[in-house]
Every structure is written in C-alpha cells, then in structure tokens.
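Ticket #131: bound-state structure for adenosine-5'-triphosphate.
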Amino acid sequence: MSFKLEIVTPDRTVISEEVDFLRVRGTEGELGILPGHAPLFAVLEIDILQFRRDAKEEVVALMGGFMEVGPDQVSIVSDGAERAVEIDVLRARAAKERAEAQLAKVKDVGAEVALQRALIRLQAAQGSRAI
Ligand code: ATP
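RESOLUTION: The complex was predicted; output attached.
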C-alpha cells in the first residue's frame, strides 16, 4: 500500500512519487501519514520532511506550507523545498552566518526566519534524525 506525495513550490514540482510513509511537522505538532489516513488539512512549519518508499528513506528541507491529505494523495504547497541531495551546503552555511550576524545587531524577524531556513537545510543535507 502506498499513496502519492506531491510537493509543489512556485518554481517547480519538487516531489511527485508514490510513498509508504510521510512525516512532517504541522503548527499543532508532528504528523505521520500512512496509506488510508483520514482527510486532513494542515499548516506546516519550516522543518525537515521525511518519506519512505520500500526501504528507501528520503529527507526534504521544507520551507513551511500547506498540506492536504486526500484518499490516495498528499499534496503540499510550499514557498520552497529541496531534496537533501539538492542542497548547496556552502550556500546554507553562508545564509546562516549572514542571519546570525544580523541577529547579533538587532532582533529581526526576517533574519530569524532566514536562520531557521538555513538550519533546516543544513539538517536535511546531513540526513539526520532516524525515521
Ligand atoms: P539565500 O540567502 O542563500 O538565497 P534563502 O533562504 O533566502 O537563501 P530562498 O528565498 O528560500 O533562499 O530560496 C530561493 C531559491 O533558492 C529557492 O528555489 C530555493 O529552493 C533555493 N535555495 C535556497 N537556498 C538553497 C540551498 N542552500 N541549496 C539549494 N537551493 C537553495
């Protein structure tokens, strides 16, 4: 048993494939989705998303968004998402350092969000956290 996972950003379709299990973090907590899950709509946080197909596990850096769980498909619309293998680690490190330098000067919400995006990209690139 599997279901279709689709992750779409303003630029592209990042993921469109059959998966067995999905884990994301919603504003109200972590959500694990298996085939046959009840219909659901959730607002998602900036966090890593994990999915599994057979024994293969993958990590995606997700820049928040909206998720709709339907009968055979989970659709996520996000501002940005990158598969772990697509992440440019040097760019994410540079973004982290820029955001930290800005936050050292002034508490700025934009810099806080930029820091969170960079940290999630670095975490996803490391493929940390067992499913
Ligand atoms: P930066 O400051 O490095 O541009 P950002 O968080 O401001 O980072 P975004 O505006 O979230 O970048 O993303 C712009 C585009 O660049 C998106 O398509 C996003 O997927 C991509 N992107 C951003 N950072 C990385 C990265 N480290 N590796 C790969 N793609 C990235």
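RESOLUTION NOTES: The first helix runs from residue 89 to 105.
TICKET STATUS: resolved
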